[in-house]
Specification:
This protein is an alpha/beta fold. The protein contains 5 helices and 5 strands. The relative contact order is 0.23.
Amino acid sequence: MSNEIIFYDGDCGLCNRSVQFVLKHERDKHIRFSTLQSDFATRFFEEHHFPQPDLTTFYFYSDNRLYKKSKAAFKVIPYLKWYWQPLRIMALLPTAIADMGYDFIAKRRKKIGGTFCVLPSAENMDRFIS
């Protein structure tokens, strides 16, 4: 089982659309997914001694490290198909500046994304951790 996990706000339409984006464009189907509201996420953050998660934040766990906000998004890019790889250049932005953009969108995420729920296909069901 892979070590990469995306933690996202399950009540956020934009967050759910982001998960669908990764599912559609991921190269090798290594990433698993968990809502921040799940019992698994609560236990995971506690067991790894991470601070309690913020629902406005996107998290990516990989190589025994937890990334958040823009850094997490940039860490997901290498797992996407080749035509998304030019976006890796954005990781060169200073984290403070990239996170300002992230925070701007995160504040408006429910208005931007509306209501949208991820319903995993049978093929992807095992990649979602409850």
